[in-house]
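Re: the multi-chain job from yesterday

Posting the exact lines I submitted so nobody has to dig through the queue logs.
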Amino acid sequence: MPKVGMPAIRRPQLVEATMAVIDDVGLAGASVSLISKKAGVSAGIINHYFGGKHGLMEETMRSVLRQLSSGVQQRLRLVDRSDPKGRILAIVEGNFDGNQVNSKVTKTWLAFWAHAMHEPALFRLQRVNAQRLLSHLTLELKMLMPAERAAFVAQGIAAMIDGIWLRGALNPDGIAPKSAVAAIEDYLELQLQHASNASPSYPDQQGKN
Amino acid sequence: MPKVGMPAIRRPQLVEATMAVIDDVGLAGASVSLISKKAGVSAGIINHYFGGKHGLMEETMRSVLRQLSSGVQQRLRLVDRSDPKGRILAIVEGNFDGNQVNSKVTKTWLAFWAHAMHEPALFRLQRVNAQRLLSHLTLELKMLMPAERAAFVAQGIAAMIDGIWLRGALNPDGIAPKSAVAAIEDYLELQLQHASNASPSYPDQQGKN
Amino acid sequence: MPKVGMPAIRRPQLVEATMAVIDDVGLAGASVSLISKKAGVSAGIINHYFGGKHGLMEETMRSVLRQLSSGVQQRLRLVDRSDPKGRILAIVEGNFDGNQVNSKVTKTWLAFWAHAMHEPALFRLQRVNAQRLLSHLTLELKMLMPAERAAFVAQGIAAMIDGIWLRGALNPDGIAPKSAVAAIEDYLELQLQHASNASPSYPDQQGKN
Amino acid sequence: MPKVGMPAIRRPQLVEATMAVIDDVGLAGASVSLISKKAGVSAGIINHYFGGKHGLMEETMRSVLRQLSSGVQQRLRLVDRSDPKGRILAIVEGNFDGNQVNSKVTKTWLAFWAHAMHEPALFRLQRVNAQRLLSHLTLELKMLMPAERAAFVAQGIAAMIDGIWLRGALNPDGIAPKSAVAAIEDYLELQLQHASNASPSYPDQQGKN
DNA sequence: TATGAATGAGTTTTCATTCAT
DNA sequence: AATGAATGAAAACTCATTCAT
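And the result, structure tokens for all chains:
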């Protein structure tokens, strides 16, 4: 008689082990045998639950991305819809959430980004995520500046977020969330000042802060 | 006597083939046999010239980074030393040089960045490069604003450069150099205005443009 | 559950196959693929059980040496502790035990002796074995002659044993155990006579036989 | 125009290099490339002079055996034909000649002995040499004891010689010629005493010494 | 005569996957 | 559900040999 509810235990357990192994030895060195050893189960079990290594990898990447956006969602929920600047900062801060920026997550995230380039399924996943960040930012920025400018600034913020992550992967200590957020907040602030000078029809920003 | 000067032909030929294969199938799929097939030579030759796959990979990464910084160097040579803003833009433009931003180089660059996380030799290489970009930018920015602020802005610019590259890897058409440079130039411009307002002792910027 | 107890079957099976292949084609020709073919299993299994060819070779050498000393131990158990001459002959006979002297074991033994010269782990193994033979012999001879002389004679006997093995490897029919033992017994007899002449305080030998 | 007399230079040069490399890394590790590097020439040259690696190895083995028997021949020339015991000791001493017993020659000699087991040409060479030692010894011993006994003792001496060599290979300091010769001389002496007791028709030995 | 570039066969090893238990 | 024994394909690498120069 099979133990019931095993999938709910085994799947996250294996995904966790996968991240840990990728952190240890890189994506290239993350073999099924290493992952199963880390999880304390047999190698065959991966096929049982994920239909193969590929399935486990996809699930792991989904999990990484899910973790990342859940940090953003959580913080957004705390900020009023009518406070665009606050919401933008929430998005930024969510991206540098405490448990996101340690070396382990940074390396796994980067490994998947590179890997996704040649795996259509993962590529789509990654692209959707990148676009979502952009549209979230654009949506809020449109309340503070003209649409065209909003799109432009959103691209800048998104690039800075990912660039800080990317460069943070080279740092053994990971990313310092505070200075990361400060850099982007500074950028945003300048853009808002610029916007208010150029077109006085978007004065909301000053009032809100 | 054997054919002379072959190393000068074979080594770049194999490095080229390596980039092409990484572009095709990713770093994970870039086997020695695939690379040698692409180069039209036997697999054994890679050991002959690079002492193993590892040597070829390191050389390829060096080549990618070299290409990147040579674009920067070339453009810097055309700009007067007393024009910091011009030099910063030269650095930025060099990073989005025409032959840098096609999908092939972007993907190879990203693949190596991720791979370097677990290869000490490549890691050092990558880190040195990332630091060089930063110090080049800081050096010039110091002529336009206080040292502390210069370091801060340099980080911002570096992050935007790498972030645009990273996000560009998701784009099948590669990076659009013009809008990439425009985004960073805009950021720089705002920072300069801010600096001149805050401390009138760095007025050079206005005169130079 | 998988088939249990396979290691207990596979390991000796692979060691046996290794000896057979070394006998057939020599140590240099004993490839993993040949060995696994002889054992009727796949090549990969060797890594599964021995962690690589090296592990298999070490285990095989241990097995050869174990077989050799078990022959000696067996015969020693049948001889009274107070009969040094009998014990020495038991050691000698054990070294020319029936299943030791066929061409197969002789060649494997010699191949390993030569190979061990450049493999620290095997070298130690071989050296320990050579020393053990010597100390066993010395121990018994000390009851029949002065210590210094005992050490001298022990070296002689050990040399003759190994020399007969070595020269036996050149003989397609292997070693003739009887004449091998006879040659060494003759040597021992002469040494005992010499000892009893020189120092009448070691008369035990005559009484015991 | 070819340099004349090159074979007379190159062949011994390569044979020397081969022995040195076998000493360094063992027969298994002695690749053509390593040998040619040691000799300071190109790899292709070995085919030129020896028709392949095999030819070089055979020549090297011949050289080792030649060196060994030349030591014996030299010493035999100094001893009167009518002094069998002296001639036997000359043979023994020749086998432990100063330049024979260092670790380098010992290891090469042993490596070839083991290797010869599976190379008909080398096997014959080795066998002829082993037989020659035996017949030299028998020839002299026949002048001191009955033919049958002479053959028996010759086997004993030959076994001790080779046994001491074999065991000497395990000793980093090589073989101590003096104690090696002493062990065999002792054995010979006992055999001669025994022979003179058993059959007084072979009294020469005593007179000669 | 001599080189060393180049090859291709063969080696060990890794690894995802399958499967009997 | 879970194991780990077993496989076979593919990987990197080694190496004797060939050959144009």
